[in-house]
Design goal:
eight-stranded parallel beta barrel; disordered N terminus; 11 helices; 349 residues; alpha/beta
Length: 349
């Protein structure tokens, strides 16, 4: 059974493995390993990797492989998927892959599951081939994964070896209210992608908490908010660094994904009013500033959402500045409190 105790908010990392302009995916992976090693020292709880395909700006098309790479270069940090897009994969294959990782790195592997393709439709079709069940099969596939991970499956005709009996922790990811109902019904932790889809964050958390059913995995709701963070020594420097994030989102909404661009003095020449509004709406839950600003804004957010965990994505052009941003974030989050919500998560291993 999972136990929770009141404590300060947990803080973690989401890494999209962004490819910065002038660099290669190999550079990105080395930077991810260095970042994982640095945040492990700073007390971060988990480090999740996303799944995206056919994007010139993102190198995380195979999160399971990257999880193993980073787990091998760290010692205590939890590595996970944020997430594996389950409609792209057969549940048995996912169970075997995560079971292998959990066997190699016991007690350190998380499985975050999403229902989106992580790509455009043509790419999704290329990935899935004849598997067109996809989104509508997501609840059944999640439960199938739970079965493969359970010791009770030992007498079944189809088994996940390794994986069986490991009860790898499963998290449900969402960017709308749909997955909130599923996470609540299955009694699983719920992570919301408010770093790019902020509109339904509060509604999704309300649905999740109001409909939550305790399970063998989780005694009470556990909510994670993924947010953008760009921190620096001063507010002005953070605002300047954040123009790389704005350019990144602009390329996404324009349908022309490009490598992460260096900061600019002004975004005015790069976007029109409609594009600016669209980007700003997507980045509504972005925390940008120096240490004092960051701590105050995060305290307001935690008070409003009563979230258990902050998972930060920092798409910053400079690797050194990105590491420093996570250092500042760790300090800021140690200074905020979560007086009413319960925030420690400990699955049965």
């Amino acid at each position: 059974m999972l136990t929770n105790t009141a404590a300060s908010v947990v803080f973690s990392v989401l890494d999209l493995a962004p490819i910065a302009a002038g660099t290669t995916p190999a550079d990105t992976f080395r930077h991810s390993l260095d970042l994982a090693q640095q945040v492990e020292k700073q007390g971060y709880t988990r480090y999740w990797l996303s799944e995206h395909h056919n994007m010139a700006s993102v190198a995380s098309s195979a999160p399971v492989v990257l999880m193993g790479y980073l787990a091998g270069g760290t010692t205590t940090l939890r590595l996970g998927s944020g997430g594996i897009m389950l409609p792209n994969h057969a549940p048995l294959v996912v169970a075997e892959q995560l079971g292998t990782l959990a066997t190699l790195y016991p007690g350190r592997i998380d499985l975050g599951l999403g229902r989106a393709p992580g790509s455009d439709q043509a790419t999704a079709q290329a990935i899935r081939g004849g598997r067109f069940g996809g989104v509508q099969d997501f609840p059944r596939d999640v439960q199938q994964l739970q079965t493969y991970f359970s010791a009770a499956n030992s007498t079944a005709a189809v088994r996940a070896i390794p994986g069986e009996g490991l009860d790898v922790p499963i998290y449900i990811l969402g960017s709308s209210t749909d997955s909130a109902y599923l996470a609540a019904a299955l009694g699983l932790p719920y992570a919301f992608a408010s770093h790019f889809a902020p509109a339904q964050l509060m509604a999704a958390f309300d649905i999740y908490r109001q409909n939550f059913r305790p399970s063998a995995a989780l005694a009470q709701p556990y909510a994670i908010a993924c947010v953008n963070v760009v921190a620096a020594d001063t507010d002005a420097e953070a605002q300047w660094l954040s123009t790389s994030l704005q350019q990144f989102m602009l390329s996404v909404i324009s349908g022309r994904p490009a490598p992460l661009a260096p900061p600019v003095e002004s975004m005015a020449p790069l976007w029109g009013p409609a594009q600016q509004q669209a980007v700003q709406q997507m980045l509504a839950y972005s925390f940008i500033g120096g240490p004092a600003t960051l701590q105050a804004d995060l305290q307001d957010f935690i008070d409003q959402t009563q979230v258990n965990e902050i998972m930060a994505v920092s798409n910053i052009f400079s690797h050194a500045a990105r590491i420093h941003s996570y250092e500042i974030l760790a300090g800021a989050l140690r200074g905020v409190t979560q007086p009413e919500a319960e925030s420690q998560l400990a699955f049965k291993e």
